[in-house]
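Hello forum,

I keep getting stuck at the same step: I have a sequence, I want structure tokens, and every attempt I make locally crashes halfway through. Rather than fight my setup again tonight, could one of you with a working pipeline run this one for me? It's a single chain of 123 residues.
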Amino acid sequence: QVQLVESGGGLVQAGGSLRLSCAASTRAFSSYAMGWFRQAPGKEREFVAAISWKSGANTYYADSTKDRFTISRDNAKNTVYLQMNSLKPEDTAVYYCNADTIRSNWPFRYDYWGQGTQVTVFS
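Reply #2:
Ran it on my machine without issues. Output:
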């Protein structure tokens, strides 16, 4: 079992920044690709960003986030981050961290999900 705990969400004005963190309860963290998804009210969950295992040499982004968000990982802390800059009201959503312990190639297949953290962007 892998537990994922997100933090760092909150209320921010448009144009501002937030950094989300996701701590994983596994010593095998570096072996797993990690990702972030989000779900806005009344909408389907959508992909935000992902990072490959080990060094995280490969990163992937949704078109709507690739120029503003940065995903990174710290294997020593078993944590993945999502730096979000130039936030827009349409970024408002619950953000979920997920892990691919299956070790699939891109696109990753996530089998563990966190509980989510709320991000609200006001204009």
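The mean pLDDT is 96. If your local run keeps crashing, start a new thread with the error log.
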